[in-house]
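We treat protein structure as text, and this decision shapes the records that our systems exchange. We quote a single record here, exactly as it is kept in our systems:
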Amino acid sequence: MLRISFAFDAAAEEFVTAVLPIVTEAVRGEAPVATGALRDSVTGQPTLAGFEVRGAAPVASFITMGTKPHDIYPATASVLVFTASDGTLVFTRHVSHPGTAPNPFPQLGWRAVEPHVLATAASIFGRATAVDTSIEGAA
């Protein structure tokens, strides 16, 4: 008889516990830092299928996916007010924003730790499989 058994539920929990903090910190470390809000919003959560790491700041999708050129108008005031890159205080009724290129910081964080995470998976899930090749009734 050949008997193969798996302890994948326990292994999956061990795997997520081992690597989720590592992946979360790697993604957090790649997040762009203007105010720190995006970086600080990066969290990791276990899911039914494994885990996910995401930035919860409202700007997260704009950063990771980029934006097309767009016009900006004041929503609750008569003018927009901001400090230009040269330090000048600007008052204007309209800005034509050129858009932003995508910043795939979650993928960059993943790539930095991927070899370690995959090696950890191989180790943990390899131990979760037991094979018994004994022959029943053999003397």
About this structure: DSSP finds four helices and eight strands in the chain. Residues 81 and 91 are 5 Å apart (CA to CA). The two ends are 14 Å apart (CA to CA).
